[in-house]
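Design request, tokens follow.
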């Protein structure tokens, strides 16, 4: 399982990894060999790591589906929409439809995918189509959620319901931040680009058993190899104090903590990693 690596008097914590060692350890977990080529492989990869952003970005430290398909050295869109870009872009619409992964803006507020297990651990509602009613959301977010009660709708139709692009973007960001909606395929037009179809998360995934923050924290630290409260907070959108409390709980379970019989809360910069 996982152990407490907080430095404390009388303890023998594992040393923190230096930058090169940490990058190597993360590469071992984040870069499949061979690289991904199918949606089925992408789903299995997400089941193993728990979460990934769609494309890498500056100041975003997380697995990316792009790097898992293209490798760590290629830059996305360097030559426009190439074959690998098209492949990864298509997976974000296919994976939710098959129940393999949730997609929306969540990890670091970027387009990202969550495994069904991590999604269930983070989902805030009861798993009902009316879950939005109990959450503090912008008015237009509630209107979008209500429009989806009858079934999935393309983004163009949802924008018409709101009537203003900026309000629509804020509403969708809030719904995705609370994991209430997900991409669910595409709607093709006779002209122009296909439109993303949006559906209620609870209609495509088994959610509503109650948040399991212990699992979510453990999953994050396991995938990140090392993590601080600030990193956990930025990734999941939690308050830093909340992330620190949940890392404290993480640090107080496992074989190492059991041997010592005690633990200490992490201070802001302390890193934690699996034992």
């Amino acid at each position: 399982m996982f152990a407490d690596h907080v430095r404390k008097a009388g303890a023998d914590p594992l040393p923190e990894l230096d930058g090169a060692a940490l990058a190597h350890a993360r590469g071992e977990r984040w870069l499949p060999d061979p690289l991904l080529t199918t949606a089925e492989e992408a789903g299995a990869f997400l089941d193993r790591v728990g979460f990934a952003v769609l494309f890498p970005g500056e100041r975003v430290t997380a697995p990316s589906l792009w790097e898992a398909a293209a490798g760590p050295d290629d830059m996305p869109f360097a030559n426009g929409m190439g074959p690998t870009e098209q492949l990864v872009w298509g997976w974000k619409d296919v994976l939710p439809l098959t129940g393999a992964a949730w997609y929306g803006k969540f990890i670091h507020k970027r387009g990202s995918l969550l495994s069904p297990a991590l999604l269930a651990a983070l989902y805030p509602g009861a798993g009902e189509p009316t879950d939005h009613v109990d959450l503090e959301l912008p008015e237009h977010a509630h209107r979008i959620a209500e429009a989806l009660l009858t079934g999935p709708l393309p983004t163009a139709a949802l924008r018409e319901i709101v009537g203003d692009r900026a309000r629509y973007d804020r509403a969708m960001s809030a719904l995705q931040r609370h994991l209430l909606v997900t991409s669910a395929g595409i709607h093709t037009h006779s002209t122009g680009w296909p439109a993303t179809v949006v559906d209620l998360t609870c209609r495509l995934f088994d959610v509503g058993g109650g948040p399991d923050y212990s699992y979510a924290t453990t999953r994050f630290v396991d995938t990140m190899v090392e993590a601080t409260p600030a990193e956990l907070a930025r990734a999941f959108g939690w308050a830093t104090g909340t992330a620190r409390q949940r890392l404290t709980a993480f640090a107080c379970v496992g074989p190492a903590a059991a041997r010592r019989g005690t633990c200490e809360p992490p201070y802001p910069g302390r890193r934690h990693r699996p034992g």
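Comment from the thread starter after seeing the answer: thanks! The beta strands are 51-53, 102-105, 111-114, 153-154, 181-187, 195-200.
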